[in-house]
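FW: tagging you since you asked about this chain on Friday. Here's the raw sequence from the shared folder, copied in full. Didn't touch anything.
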Amino acid sequence: MDNKRLDIELIRIIAVFFVIFNHTGTMGYFLFASYEPRSIQYWIYLFISVFCKISVPLFFMITGALMLNRKEESLRYLWKHRVLHICCILIIWSFFYYMVLVKEGVEAFNIVRFFRQLYVYNWNFSFWYLYVYIALLICLPLLQKIAQSLSNKDYIYMTILYITFKMIIPSLQYILWRGRYTLNNNIDLGWITSNIVIFPLMGYFLSYRVKGFWNKKRILILWGINICTIFMSCYLTYYRASVMGVCNEESSQAFHDTFVLINCITVFVTCQYLNDKSQLLSKISKQIISLGGCTFGIYLTHIYIKDHTAITRYISKLFQDIIPIPRMLYAFIYCIIIFICGYIITLLLKKIPFIKRIVS
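HL: got it, structure written out here
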């Protein structure tokens, strides 16, 4: 327990909470679309919607912070103890969700169809992360070499490239030409700017190269920049919706994660600062470590709790019918309850010898 980094555990908690929020649809995540752009609720709720996109990138940054500084493992160990472990988790939990659908009459049992969809798509829309994480683990030896060999100037150059090609150019070209003209696809920095490269490398960089750089003043400045870029994403989302004539979850998220790297860096270094310069986290270290240790299980179970139990119906009846509260407050309370339920379930599962290996 003493080896746990409290900042990392806090980041896990923040990340999984916003994973849950990201799946609330028009109840929370896309609640802003229910309001007119001239209303204050539209912009506040859109701000929250954009902010929550830090969830999965933060998990990639955690991987970088914890795994890219290690000594290189043998490929045999990597595939046997890391890649195979996550593959087994993916198969077992996908089969669980498949059997839930069979029990509910949505699917007929067909083992060939199960494995076909597991190979081509998934059985739980949130499990796309597991597929990407498998890809990250496969590349881990290469990422470790890259992370440890790059100079600080190289990291800064990489960040500038990301900001230029993933933030500035997409934003400017849409404002100027409304999507009619875009940069030639052959000028593609895809491998550098992919989630399994930029975010793990940034987690490593912030943890081991510039950890002493951040003080209170610099973090406040960073938060100011972060808030400005989030509002820029909000404006671009609004602008694109006005151009397209539609605002819904399926077609209106193009700019939600445009500036997500800045948001992730801000949250990451803030948690580091709280851990290093404040006693706040140490005072509640047991709670943070306990919650942080259950975040993977919460991620795996939250869709079941949300969509396949009566919890959602009871929460809705309590806070919408019996004790009416503002809609966004309801969404946050809903996420907290789902989080707590997932936490309790994970704690119980971790007490079972074999099962604990598929929730951690």
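FW: The CA atoms of residues 54 and 126 lie 15 Å apart.
HL: agreed, and The chain has one domain: 6-358.
FW: great, closing this out.
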